[in-house]
């Protein structure tokens, strides 16, 4: 059956609530601005959590705005910089599914259309409210005949649209859940990348911390092969908050602990350790999913470089323990996971490379013995794979090869690459 994707705008497609942001623009010189900001935010949350009717909340917020068309221009420029990261990196999905995506929002077309237009979403597929202006361009209200200005407006709209097919809803608020509650969609995905409303998330068919997660579970085209929210990043010890926030902002699932607890050994994908923390060899050997370790200090005497290298774990450390550079190691870890960069690692050949559009990036780590590279390229040849770019670096112990291939290929090639003799680790980067 044909599939449709109903996507919310505020706090879903964008990181913020647009009316809240508009208030901060229009009221920036108002003497009571902080109190008004808080009142608008409270009204927004009350509606999103189902504690107040949407119509009542919307009317009260619009009355408090004191905004005009010039303020809207500033808002649009601001919102374009606030598109949710996981939506921003998945433009390919929107291009391939331009006719299947509908933006359905209690927000307003005046700022939604300019923001989503670069994502190949047509105006005809954008359903939202519209402002009413006076002769001077000041916002004085909204079109009260629009069903989206009412409580249950999204349900009313979908009833009228009569879409034929499987419909999936993605949003953060009560009005998005109502689509599932009233049987208008097949599944509701609570989007929590920007905010998690527990009263909404607990009712969802699936909680999706990123748009990557939604695309992954539905086997849809996506920018990265594996959602970062599924990569467990274990932070151990007295690590600066900024370093943790850097990793969290990039979308990884963070656990901050005082020690390497046994329950995390099988599943941990990344580790960031404070200076002085020790990682036991026995646990390290069993951490089979571990891809990279960051150490905020000199790791050479307390972390086994040989074990890490043999397991294909890239280590970044800071021998000088530079307290003024709290993000340095976290960013090195992120660049490895996102792009395959091993620049300034302790135990891997240094490699930095550009991202190539329209390609999938495959990482193969192997023991540095003769013949492995030939075997890798033979697998590509056997499957008629078009290689767009290939990068190889070695040291005395390992070979590290990154291959960019055209995004159309037989997935059986992945299995064959994993089974090459002397393979340590293999993964699809994106």
TrEMBL record:
SUPFAM superfamilies reported in the protein's UniProt record: ACT-like, HAD-like
Entry keyword Nucleotidyltransferase: no
Catalytic activity: O-phospho-L-serine + H2O = L-serine + phosphate; O-phospho-D-serine + H2O = D-serine + phosphate
Entry GO terms, CC: cytoplasm
Enzyme class: hydrolase
Keyword terms of this UniProt record: Amino-acid biosynthesis, Hydrolase, Magnesium, Metal-binding, Serine biosynthesis
GO biological process: L-serine biosynthetic process
UniProt keyword annotation of Metal-binding present: yes
Pathway(s) it belongs to: Amino-acid biosynthesis; L-serine biosynthesis; L-serine from 3-phospho-D-glycerate: step 3/3
Gene3D superfamilies per record: 3.30.70.260, HAD superfamily/HAD-like, Phosphoserine phosphatase, domain 2
A Pfam family this chain is assigned to: ACT_AHAS_ss
Residue ranges occupied by any ACT domain in the UniProt entry: 361-430
Matching PANTHER family: PHOSPHOSERINE PHOSPHATASE (PTHR43344:SF2)
Record's protein name: phosphoserine phosphatase
Organism: Daejeonella lutea
């Amino acid at each position: 059956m044909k599939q449709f994707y109903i996507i919310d705008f505020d706090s879903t497609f964008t990181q913020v609530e647009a009316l809240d942001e508009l208030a901060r623009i229009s009221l920036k010189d108002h003497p009571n601005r902080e109190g008004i900001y808080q009142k608008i935010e409270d009204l927004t949350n009350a509606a999103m959590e189902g504690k107040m009717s949407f119509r009542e909340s919307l009317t009260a917020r619009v009355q408090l705005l004191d905004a005009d068309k010039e303020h809207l221009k500033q808002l649009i420029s601001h919102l374009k910089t606030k598109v949710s990261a996981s939506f921003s990196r998945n433009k390919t999905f929107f291009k391939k599914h331009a006719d299947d995506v509908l933006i359905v929002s209690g927000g307003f077309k005046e700022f939604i259309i300019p923001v989503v237009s670069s994502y190949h979403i047509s105006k005809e597929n954008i359903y939202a409210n519209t402002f009413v202006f006076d002769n001077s361009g000041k916002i004085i209200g909204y079109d009260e005949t629009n069903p989206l200005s009412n409580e249950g407006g999204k349900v009313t709209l979908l009833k009228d649209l009569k879409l034929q097919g499987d419909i999936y809803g993605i949003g953060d608020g009560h009005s998005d859940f109502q689509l599932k509650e009233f049987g208008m969609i097949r599944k509701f995905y609570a989007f929590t990348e920007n905010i998690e409303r527990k009263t909404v998330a607990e009712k969802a068919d699936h909680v999706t911390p990123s748009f990557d997660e939604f695309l992954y579970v539905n086997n849809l085209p996506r920018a990265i092969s594996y959602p970062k929210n599924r990569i467990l990043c274990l932070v151990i010890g007295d690590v600066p908050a900024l370093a943790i926030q850097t990793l969290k902002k990039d979308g990884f699932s963070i656990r901050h602990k005082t020690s390497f607890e046994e329950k995390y050994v099988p599943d941990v994908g990344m580790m960031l350790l404070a200076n002085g923390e020790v990682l036991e060899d026995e646990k390290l050997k069993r951490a089979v999913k571990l891809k990279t370790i960051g150490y905020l200090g000199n790791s050479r005497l307390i972390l086994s470089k040989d074990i890490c290298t043999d397991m294909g774990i890239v280590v970044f450390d800071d021998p000088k323990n530079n307290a003024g550079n709290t993000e340095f190691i976290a960013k090195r870890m992120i660049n490895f996971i996102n792009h395959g960069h091993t620049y300034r690692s302790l135990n891997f050949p240094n490699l930095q490379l550009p991202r190539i559009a329209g390609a999938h990036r495959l990482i193969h780590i192997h023991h540095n013995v003769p013949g492995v590279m030939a075997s890798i390229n033979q697998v590509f040849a056997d499957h008629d794979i078009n290689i767009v770019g290939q990068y190889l670096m070695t040291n005395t112990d390992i070979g590290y090869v990154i291959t960019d291939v055209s995004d159309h290929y037989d997935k059986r090639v992945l299995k064959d690459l994993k089974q090459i003799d002397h393979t340590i680790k293999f993964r699809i980067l994106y």
